[in-house]
Every structure is written in C-alpha cells, then in structure tokens.
Fold these 2 entries.
Entry 1:
Amino acid sequence: MIEISAALALIEQTATPLPPRRMPLLDACGRVLAAPVVSDVDSPPWDRAMMDGFAVQAIDFQAKSSAGVALDVLVDLAAGTVSTMTIQSGCCARIMTGAAIPTGADAVVPIEWALNNTADAHAGGKVCLSTEKFRTGQHLAKQGTAFRCGQEVLSVGTTLGSAAIGLATEAGATHVVAAPRVRVAILSTGSELVAPEALPALGQTRCSNGTMLAAAVRLLGAEPIPLGIASDRPEAIRALVAQGLAADVLVLSGGVSAGDLDLVPEIFQRCGIEKIFHKVRLKPGKPVWFGMLKRAHEAPTLVFGLPGNPASSLVCFELFVRPAIQILAGSPRQQWHLPRQRARLMGPVKAAPDRPVYLPCRLLRSARALEATPLQWTGSSDLLGLAGAGGLLALPAGGDRYDVGDEVDVVLWAAVECA
Ligand code: AMP
Ligand code: MG
C-alpha cells in the first residue's frame, strides 16, 4: 500500500503526452495546440465601419455648430459592397456596420446623430449631422489594429476553446496541429452486473460504472470506448482486456480487491501489463491498481483497475485517472488535477484513523469564505450523496474530529455556487 502522493508521482512518471497530429480545426476543440497558429490576414483586414451611419471627413466636423453640418450622400455602402468613390469635404457615404470605409473618410457618424429628420438620407440626398461629440477616427476599426498578417495569434500549449477556434478561423487556419483526443476504453467486471436498461433481479446490480466513467472521460474532452460488462470468468475478462489494450488508456472497474473473484490483478499480469502500484492509502478507493503495457510502435497503454463500488470508482477516477488523461492530452500541469482550496466547515466530520478520507460536500462561496457543508452519505456505494456534491472534503489520516468553523481542504468537483 502506498500514499496518494507516491501514487500520483508514479502516474506522472509513467504518462507522457501523445504525439500531436494535424487535424481539422473543429476536431481540435478542447485540445492543446502543438504548433502555433499564424494569421494569413490583418485583423481587421481593412478599415471597417463599426456603426450604422455615415462615413465622413473629420475636417467637416471641426467647426462646432448647433445646426450641425449638411453633407451630400454620395453612395450607399452595405456590408459586402465596396465603392471606388473618394469621400471629400462636404460629402459622405451612407454606411452600414461591417462595410469597408471608403477612401477619404476618417470617421463614422452614427445614424442617431442625424438632425432634422434626415436619418433616411440615401445616395443622392443630403444629411444633416450633429457635430457636438465628434472625434476623428470614431466608430471605425483600422486595418491591422487587432493583429497583423504573419503574427502568431495562438501559441503552443493553448487549450482551444470556442474563442480560440473562432480566432484560428479568422486567421485562416482550417487545420491545426494539436494533441489527439485520448481514447479511453472502459470495462466493467462483475457477474452480478446487468445492462443499464435491465431491471435488476435479486442479486443483480445495474452497471452504473460504465456510463459514469464514460461521462467522466467525456467531460475531460477524451473519447470513451465502452467495452461493456465482463462476468467474473478469467476468459471473459481477458478477452475484453485484450480489446481495451488497443486504446491509450484502459479503465476497468471491479474485481481488483481481495475477494475470491477479484481476478483482475492476475489477469492484468498475464496480459503482460506491468504493475506499477496496487492499493493506495485512501478511503474510498483503497484497492486501486495501476500499470502499463509497453507497445512496439506506439505509446504504452496505461491501465487502471478501479474498485467496483461506484463512489470509490469515481473518486479514484478523479484522483488518478484524470491526471493521466490530462498528461496524455498535453494539458498544462495546472489542469492535471481538480483544484484544491481551503474551506470553512459547516458541519462536524470525523477523519479515518488509518488513511486520508474523501467525503462529499456542498460548496458555497459566501462573502466571508468558501463554505463546505458535509452531505449525508452512506459510503462507497452511495452515488446519491456524491451526485449532489460540489466537492470533496479531503481529511488527512489521524482520526481527528472537525467542527463547524474549522478550516479544511476541499477538492472542487463542480462549479461553486455563490451566495
Ligand atoms: P468489486 O470491486 O468487484 O468487489 O465490487 C464492489 C461492489 O461494487 C459490489 O457491490 C459490486 O456489485 C459493485 N459494482 C462493481 N462494478 C459495478 C458497476 N459497474 N456498476 C455498479 N456497481 C458495481
Ligand atoms: Mg466484483
């Protein structure tokens, strides 16, 4: 049995980022960029109107007058239309947001500044515009003021969110080089397990780990590969483990502790998987198993055996599988683990004497502190308590009692509610 910190160190030593690949931009959503994106255009690509109104020459607005200034409208410019006309003193163009500013114009006067009911003036007409608050350059975005052609707009290590995807598109990148999606095979073991759609008979248990772990994988931006259920027969487990070893990570649940039918550690070893650790000092999740299979021309497959009890399985996933997937996905170190913070305890709890314990809690950020309220929870098979949790209290071993007002560590699991 090893400590959590030692287990994490071993995972960090074993997992290495998957080789990056070129892929269509949208496939890289949520992935980490491995080559910079360099723009093939200026942004804006030309001087652009940022308001509906009139493109004017600033010189006509120098003399302030309560009567405004009357200008001839030379042309109507909708977004997408361009004109070769030059705007000179005394003239303007009616222009809509997103149209190119015509030569000669150096500001856009919003349509709302039209006086004497002239807001509807089109080409051939006259408009009277207020001069009061005029500034040269107003309401136009100059070419290249956001970024320049040839500029690096996204750097290596950026996780591609929606704004970054939009920016890459604007910069002309239809494909990018990024870490591939980590493929995670998920296998549930147990002769008592029945498919999610079945109503369990006496002695049967619905296989909730399969979908739960697939969801956890998907929420990390990785790709779950569900392998279904293997009964507690060595051949059944071995066949599906062999399939799972084609993935980047194999996550198996059940059969890893010390019961008669806990066959998994031996099967792993017979499949050539090298054991790195088995059993970690923690509650829930003590039986967790970790190893790897070396492969000839590919990165090794990382293999996790998680305890079957659903809450233990999920706690182990979040503590141990999450960082492995994040490392393979090339994520920066600060994203490897769930964030940890100090919180003010809102109800009494007791630590376990022999090992660190994780307990579900509600989290609320008040003006004073992050407040952690322990949730009613019956233990490692209870998903109800866990599903309502915003985080996990992390109590060190020692059997101490903690009371209301004490400061404790919490692992943030979901977005924190604000009071
Ligand atoms: P095990 O780790 O195989 O000893 O299983 C511990 C407990 O977890 C048993 O009560 C199992 O029925 C239950 N369990 C194992 N696998 C699953 C699963 N995939 N979904 C729900 N419960 C499970
Ligand atoms: Mg079992």
Entry 2:
Amino acid sequence: MNKHWRELIEDFRSLILNFQIENGNELEEFRIKFLGTKNILKPLFAAISSIPNEDKKEYGLLLNQLKSLADEKYSQFKELSSSTENKSTEDLSLPADLTRIGSRHPITLVMDKVVSIFSKIGFQVVEDREIEDDWHNFTALNTPDDHPARDMQDTFYLKDRNDFLLRTHTSSVQTRFMTTHRPPFRILAPGRVFRNETISARSHCQFHQVEGLYVDTNVSMADLKQTLLFFAKEMFGKDVKIRLRPSFFPFTEPSAEMDIYWGLKDETDHRITKGTGWLEILGCGMVDPAVLDNCGIDSKVYSGFAFGMGIERQAMLLYKIPDIRYYFENDLRFLRQFKNA
Ligand code: PHE
C-alpha cells in the first residue's frame, strides 16, 4: 500500500511533465485535466483519509507539490502563448498586439528640460568621461592637494590606478573643454557624478548634475545672475523667487549658491526643503582666473561664469518623490508612473 500511493503520485508527476502543449487547445486541455473543477488530482486529495496517519504529512506535501507543478507549467505556457500567439493565423485584419512602451526616467525628463531651456539661449551640450584623472577633476580646478574633497572618504579612486577617479562633479567637463577649445563658448554638460556617501533617503553615492560654462570677453556676475533667473523662471514658473547666497568653491571667485523658493504646500516640500520652503539647486560663480590660465586661456583677455546644478532634488520636488533611492532601483511600478510626463 505504502509503495502504491508513492508510485501513484510519481505516475501523475510524469503525466504532468510529459503532457505536450503546443497550441492553445492543448493548453486548455491541460488546464481542464489538471487544474479544472473536475481535475484528475482531486481524487488523490480526497483519498487522504485512507492514508495511514504516519504517512499523511508526506502524502499531503507530495500532493501539493504536484499541484504547484501543474500550476507552474500552465502559467509558463500561458505566458509563452500570449507573447507569441498570433490570435488567429487566418484573420490578417486583426489589430497587432501592442508592445509595452517604456517610459523615460524622471532624471532624464528633468535633464532634458534643463538642456532645452539653456539651448534657447545658445548653450551647446557637451558630454565627457565619468572616469577622470586627478588633474581634470581637481588640480586644474584649483583644488589644493590637501582639500577634503580629495579624501578617500569622499572620492572613489580606481583600485589599481589611484591617479584615476570617478568624477565627483561635472566641473571636470569644464577643464576638458577649456583645454581643447578657444573662447567664446557657452556649454552645458549633463552627466552622472559619484561621491563616497552613505546611502539614505536624501543622499546617494551617485547622482546627476548639469554644468554650465560661459567664457568670453567681459562676462560679468550680472550675466550669471540674469542667466540663472531666466532658467529658474522657465523651469519653475515666472513667479519663482530666487536668492544667491555667498559661498566658496576653489574654482570660482566670487562664488555663490542659488536657492529657489518652492513653498511648503505638502509633506514632501517640508522634508526636501528642511522646513524652509527654500531649495538649494546649484553652486556657481565667476571662473577663477587661475583656472582659465591652467587651461591655457588668457585670463587677462577672457572671463567667464560657471554653475553646476543637482538634478535629483529638483526632480523630487517636481514629481513628489519622497526618497532618492527610488531613482536607482529600477522598480517598474515607480518608472511606469512617468509614462505621460
Ligand atoms: N562643482 C560644484 C559642486 O559639485 C558646483 C559648481 C559648479 C560650483 C560650477 C561653481 C561653479 O558642488
């Protein structure tokens, strides 16, 4: 008897495994036979009362495995048939299956918007490498050897070549461009940057910036301010308020940070602006003459301004995204929400 029920289950197992499914009809046959209301596994479940007590547990377990096997086989073939089956080979007038169209990532949406705003006023997009050398990321930008940003704690250096690093800001594109082009120029450099930060809801070890650089004769701080105001209005609406706070960067002099007033309409606003309603979106300043000279541009003839803005936080406010980690997890439930954005 013992052997008998084990053998019986084994027989059903092979029956499921060997059942040929090559078309929709066979798939339906399979469903009726193993999963339908009168499926052939049912009597086995009913027979549990006749199984000796000490075997009941094992018997039940094996039966359930049998059932899952049938379930799995069915859903596997069902998926296959719905992706390949042309509903009816005869009727060519039926509409084609719609392929699922992807959506653009919120970071891409915001970066594209920034690029399109600045292209209206003559900025040209330039892209460059993410793995940089120390000179283009730090030295040429006037960052002294003992500056904390150069620390291993802040910057990812390559393991075997520690004169190379993952760029910590898109300002490296400034030096790449200035060493190979002569002014006047107006460029915009969108891209990914990396810092050795602990990952949390507010900060990540990778994020995105858009860098701007304008070099010509007689470029002034007033030009910078007008350009940024123009940007803020286009991006956040014509009533937006901005403020420039004095700041410090080794490669600009004077330097400032720009905040926009977003307001405190809801919970995300409170959290992202730390309860102030103001959001810092960029660092900027007049290109330090030493940087121009480092790159072979005569600082007695030319001057320029530069800015570098963070993208993640702007996107958080614009789309009410509560946590920066969502950007990098590629969860389709998150990404699909930007279909119509
Ligand atoms: N690179 C700076 C940062 O990452 C931003 C910046 C760019 C500041 C250009 C001034 C000029 O914080």
